[in-house]
């Protein structure tokens, strides 16, 4: 048995071999997937060695996986063998090339596995000699003595491919972990959407039946009407929760859309004052500070109303009587910044970084509150508008939520030119 334990002499390579190898090295630098790396290496291995077949073998613990091949007739692509009972395993475990002129005269070869193939002679080199991650095999249909050139070439190729193989494996592991996480998120979203959707029908029946019952129960005593009111309120609350769940599922799945129209900032802000009575009922003031210059913003008014309802609703819940909630706006060149500030309890600093993320935020259920989806939905709505939301808070002093909305663009370049000229003339 010839052994090649030392570094193989590169002098055995011709100029053409070196050019092909250099090309391979250059291409390897651009490949990310293991599949691409193996395809490049098997092609180059066959071209360089002139072999009738080439295999790419990966170590998987105590097994070797014949992951890829290119040959005149099928070899073992996709098969796995115990590492101790095949020649690729031998090259991996001994960290040196195996060179076999007559495979049937070598007891390291599992002869039965080879009988169905064309192979008579072979060379097997380990990939990453210090701690092999696999091996490259070259096979010939005619019995021959593989020379130093072939062995050196294959080993040089395997050495060049080692880092790319490792990177490819890491890339694949990372990709499959990401795919699994995405599949889980998608499944959760689908389940959420399905359940929320299916809950809507029976809820619709409850709401409709209570409205039919109302006139029938009208002549009855106060208690019956009280029960009916409770039923109505619960149905409404459930309806809101289901809408929130559906919105949340759509945001998570990336399928949330808004339909934007131009709207005056002052009108948009007035939506927030609808919650004034709720605040006053609890002894809290609600102040609206409109900007000096009114501008048009592009937004989905119903969705922004939903954002205000949650932000002001939260502020009312976390502000004690005697406190103040201020809704204000700042107009910038390309955007407006809207804020809802309160003088309430504030939010603990460790919660702030994950406040908008329902999945990461610690669960705190307060009686009378929703499921805690409000801020995640608000962020989804604002981001769907091309804006962003942020929060500042100090425990005991209060909280300010600020979100941006893009400004309505001027109709055309000409319009803005006319407007700009007009402004300049006035300024004179
Ligand atoms: N203005 C605020 N002051 C103090 N804490 C707040 C304020 N706004 C939000 N929070 C905290 O953030 C949590 C999440 O708010 P979010 O609006 O997402 O959920 P929720 O109001 O509990 O339920 P939902 O909005 O679904 O009805 C609140 O439960 C509260 O702990
Ligand atoms: Mg809320």
Care to give the gist of this entry?
This protein is α+β, with helices and mostly antiparallel strands.
User: How many separate helices?
Assistant: 11
Helix content: 40-55%
What binds here, in terms of ligands, is: adenosine-5'-triphosphate, magnesium ion
The main pleated sheet reads as: 6 strands, antiparallel
Number of domains: 3
Q: What is the terminal separation in angstroms? A: 99 Å
Tell me the series of helices and strands, N- to C-terminal.
HHEEEHEHEEHHEHHEEHEEHEEH
Description:
The strands form three sheets. This protein has a six-stranded antiparallel β-sheet, sandwiched between helices. A five-stranded mixed β-sheet has the order 8-10-11-13-12. It has three domains: 10-176, Beta-Lactamase (2-Layer Sandwich); 185-252; 261-413, Histidine kinase-like ATPase, C-terminal domain (Heat Shock Protein 90). With 428 residues, the chain is an alpha+beta fold. α1 (15-28) packs antiparallel against α2, α2 (34-49) runs antiparallel to α5 (148-217) and α5 (148-217) packs antiparallel against α6. It is built from eleven helices and 13 strands. It is elongated. The chain binds adenosine-5'-triphosphate and magnesium ion. Magnesium ion binds next to α9.
Can you tag this structure with a few keywords?
428 residues, alpha+beta, Beta-Lactamase, Heat Shock Protein 90, 3 domains, six-stranded antiparallel beta sheet, five-stranded mixed beta sheet, 13 strands, binds adenosine-5'-triphosphate, binds magnesium ion
């Amino acid at each position: 048995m010839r052994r090649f334990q030392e570094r193989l002499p590169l002098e055995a390579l011709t100029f053409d071999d070196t050019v092909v190898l250099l090309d391979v090295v250059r291409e390897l630098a651009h490949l990310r997937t293991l599949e691409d790396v193996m395809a490049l290496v098997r092609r180059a291995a066959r071209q360089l060695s002139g072999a009738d077949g080439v295999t790419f073998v990966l170590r998987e613990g105590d097994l070797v996986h014949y992951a890829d091949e290119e040959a005149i007739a099928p070899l073992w692509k996709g098969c796995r063998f115990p590492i101790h009972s095949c020649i690729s395993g031998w090259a991996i475990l001994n960290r040196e090339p195996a060179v076999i002129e007559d495979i049937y005269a070598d007891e390291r070869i599992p002869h039965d596995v080879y009988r169905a193939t064309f192979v008579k002679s072979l060379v097997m080199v380990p990939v990453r000699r210090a701690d092999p991650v696999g091996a490259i095999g070259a096979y010939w249909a005619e019995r021959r003595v593989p020379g130093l050139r072939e062995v050196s070439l294959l080993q040089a190729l395997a050495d060049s491919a080692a880092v790319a193989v490792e990177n490819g494996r890491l890339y694949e592991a990372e990709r499959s972990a990401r795919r699994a996480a995405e599949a889980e998120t998608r499944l959760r979203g689908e389940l959420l959407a399905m359940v929320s959707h299916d809950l809507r029908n029976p809820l619709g029946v409850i709401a409709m039946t209570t409205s039919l019952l109302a006139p029938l129960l009208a002549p009855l005593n106060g208690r019956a009407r009280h029960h009916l009111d409770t039923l109505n309120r619960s149905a409404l609350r459930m309806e809101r929760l289901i809408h929130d769940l559906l919105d949340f599922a759509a945001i998570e799945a990336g399928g949330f859309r808004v339909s934007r129209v131009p709207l005056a900032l002052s009108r948009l802000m007035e939506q927030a004052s609808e919650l004034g009575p709720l605040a006053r009922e609890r002894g809290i003031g609600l102040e609206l500070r409109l900007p000096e210059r009114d501008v048009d913003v592009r937004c989905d008014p119903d969705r922004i109303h939903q954002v205000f309802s949650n932000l002001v609703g939260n502020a009312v819940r976390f502000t004690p009587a005697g406190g103040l909630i201020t809704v204000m706006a700042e107009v910038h060149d390309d955007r407006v910044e809207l804020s809802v500030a309160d003088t309430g309890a504030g939010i603990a600093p460790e919660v702030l970084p994950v406040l908008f993320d329902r999945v990461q935020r610690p669960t705190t259920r307060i009686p009378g509150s929703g499921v805690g989806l409000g801020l995640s939905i608000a962020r989804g709505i604002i981001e769907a508008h091309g804006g962003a939301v942020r929060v500042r808070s100090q425990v005991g002093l209060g909280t300010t939520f600020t979100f941006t909305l893009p400004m309505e663009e001027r109709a055309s370049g000409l319009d803005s030119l006319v407007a700009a000229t007009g402004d300049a003339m006035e300024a004179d």
